[in-house]
Structure of DUF3447 domain-containing protein:
Amino acid sequence: MDNFFADFKDNIDDLSFLSQKIFDYFENIDDDKEEEVCDKLIYYIKRKNIKEDQNKYSSFLHFLAFASLVRPYIKNINQKVIKIINILIEHFELASSFIPKVIFDIFIKNHYIILHLLQRDIIPIDCLKRELNRKERFIHLWFFLPEMMYFPELLSNKDFAQKCTNWDKCCKDIKKSRDNIINVNDLALVMIQNDDIEQFIQFASQTNLDINTQIENIFNLGMMCDFSLDLFQNLSLIECSMLFGSLQIFKYLLLNYASISDSSLKYAIIGGNYEIIHLLENHHYIFNKECIEISIIFHQQELYEYLVQMKINKNQHSISRHNLVQIAISNFNFRCLQKLLNEFQSGFLDDYQKHEMMEFINPSSMPIFIEYLLKKSYIDLKTRTTVLFYY
């Protein structure tokens, strides 16, 4: 094992450990132990020395940005992420370790985090203005409408004139909607999120609910970023029950012959409820290659390992290592990458041609991986100026 690979692997091991602790914290439902868990997080982060290595610290921040979006079934996910952000500000010099533009670019996928960083003066309002100026999708602008009082020239957007005839009311409604991740105006959706089977059955009976009806928007605008805009629109009721891991309502819909397609199965992977997954398997649904990729994107590591092992047991060897490595790196899935490194060691990039390495070079690439590519000269010298532009 060469020294460059050993250093890279050590960093991945550390970040894999921290990522698991972050997800443990997200899924901790014992409020009485909240402070104890946070104290342990501070200890673990200090132990891994991320503050002393900027590429490692930056990679951790990128992971946190992704992690904030891949557990949509956790009701208070944004509050938990913001608590971690505050820990990094107060104990790990976040504001002085990176320039505001870098922090903004890392967390732009989650509007709730950007809003908090604005409120704490970690990033200036000008960062938001530049972003909104270049965004074509109205949905990005709408979430930050109350902040747009600082730059009214953006309000010339024709969509605002149509949707916002009363500025004060619009701002008030948006601020209120920020308190909820999901679209609370849809009663069926709220019942599904809470897995309130009795209320759901009563509601279905009283309203003559179509078992295969679709919900147009699952989440509020803060969660509807480029990462998930298309994925969480127009879901059926049973897909919503898979997404939120709502076992009782899922069983009810399944027994009442709600329609399930191959494309529905990915929501069971995102939701991560093993009982739902096994029920689907018992009904002869097959989790395909897309589901394996979704398990990596949404950091469902145990499900990833389960699905890969199922493929191996059935002698289905169509899984490309090349593809798995790229998805893990692109989505900052350190646990998956750690497993791949343990399996393939320093040869984990053997499937790549040199020109393909450039696929990894962009402002949101994993810093410790780019550092490794540079040290190993996997990137052509002629392209290093491009790399250094980002790093």
In short: DSSP finds 23 helices and two strands in the chain.
